[in-house]
Structure formats: C-alpha cells, structure tokens
Amino acid sequence: MIKLIAIDMDGTLLNSEKKIPAENIRAIQKAAAAGIKVVLCTGRPKSGILPYFEELGLSEEEYIIMNNGCTVYNTKDWDLMNYAQVSNQELDRLYQAIENHPEVCLTLTGQKTYFAIADEVPELVQYDAGLVFDTAKASSLAAVKEGSEIIFQAMFMAEQSKLDAFQAEQEEVLGRDFSVVRSQSYIFEAMPKGHTKASALKELTDQLGYSPENVMAIGDAANDLEMLEYSYHSVAMGNASAAIKERCRYVTSSNDQAGVAKAILDYALAHL
C-alpha cells in the first residue's frame, strides 16, 4: 500500500511554463485526503518551493525535501528537521575545482542566501536565481566562510559546452568527496558526501515507519534516479530520458500532460 508519494518539481510537477497543472493539484489533494503523505522532493531551495506548496492547498502536516536531499522541512511550522552542511574545508576544495575554468561560476546555497562566488553575478546565475524567486549575491569565498550562514550545497554553473569540459575533468575527482550530479545542462551540483534525494527520502520514511514498498516516487532527471530506485513504486515521467524510464516500474505521461495526476490516480489511489 502506498503511504507516501515523493514528487520532483521541475520537469515533473511543473509543466514547461513552470506552472502546476490543475489536474496535478486535484490529484495531490485527493491523495492527501486519503491519508497519503505528499513530499515534494526537489533540488530547489525554500524560496523556489513556497509559492508552489501554497498553491497545492494542503492543510495537513507534510514534508519537503529540498536542495537535492541536503535539507528536510516540516511544513507544519517550517522547522528544519534534517540538514547536511558543506564545511569550510570542503568549500576550499570546491573553489579549487574551478581554478582552471574561469568561465564556470561556483554558487552556494545557504540557509538564507544564494551566493555567487564572483566579483559580479553572471547573467546565467542570476537567471537561475530568478527561477527560484531569489536574487544571487556576489561574494568572496572568504566572506562566506567568515559568516555564520549554513551552506547546504554547491552548484557549478556555465554554458553547456563549458560545463561539459569542467565535468569531464572534475566529476571523478569531486565524486570522491561529494555526491555529484549533472542536474541541468548548465548546472553541475555537489552535495556533502552521501546526501541525495534518496538518502533524505530514506531517512524520512524510516522516521515515519514506512518501508520502500510504501513509497511511490515520480521524477524525470538524473538527480531523481537514486530516489526512484529506492522507491518500490517508481514512476518515470513521459518526458524523461530512455535511461530513466528503463530503471522505473511505471511510466506516466509528460509534465505538459499532467503526468503526476495520472500516476497518482493510476498507481496510488486506484489501489486503496
């Protein structure tokens, strides 16, 4: 029996216009009314989630996994339940990685601030910050390290060809010390080692007393893969790559066709 549904946001819950289809909202509300926990599980920070969560209109206590598994919030009072932190030593290591790649910007997601480690915020970084209803702040690494803000994760950003070269050189090396993933064409992410959407989802389900057999996960991208593999009821979006679809138990329609609603109705609510 499905007791928890973990839902990715970009490319999954949200359509191509970054909006939630009405069908998805109705299906999620039906699932919550049936006693199923609805957990948004996303790479987005809190600023990029709140407006959408409010749109879902859920009245019961829910949970949100943010920053690709680095933070877990309880929506009852927005307490930070669990989090991973990038240490100052790890920040130095991340900064060293771009030493030979001046076109790649290191960005850091803090508890309150979206940092760009640069003299000025690159246009691409400010664009990404805008997608999560935030504004990036240019800062030196020294200033971030001297501050008191918790840093949850890092993202390397550049145009695709430049990031391809960076990833080819640094992925294996960085992967020894961090959990890394290419989440978008212009974003290569680095989280504290062992922290992913899957690790956060497992920790949360353990706390709730659920097993993987009680979990349905819906996603479309590489940073969803471990979460999908953890969940017994794994659902790939119709817009996911063939590699993602091959690893999932089910395939639903695309994010522009309310695939989340179809998955909830077909695989969760139909079997209550």
UniProtKB/TrEMBL annotation:
UniProt cross-references to Gene3D superfamilies, sorted A to Z: 3.30.1240.10, HAD superfamily/HAD-like
Pfam families: Hydrolase_3
Source taxon at top rank: Bacteria
MF terms (GO), sorted A to Z: magnesium ion binding; phosphatase activity
Signal peptide: none
NCBIfam families: Cof-subfamily, HAD-SF-IIB
InterPro entries in the record: Cof (IPR000150), HAD-like_sf (IPR036412), HAD-SF_hydro_IIB (IPR006379), HAD_sf (IPR023214)
Stated name of the protein: Haloacid dehalogenase-like hydrolase
GO cellular component, one term: cytosol
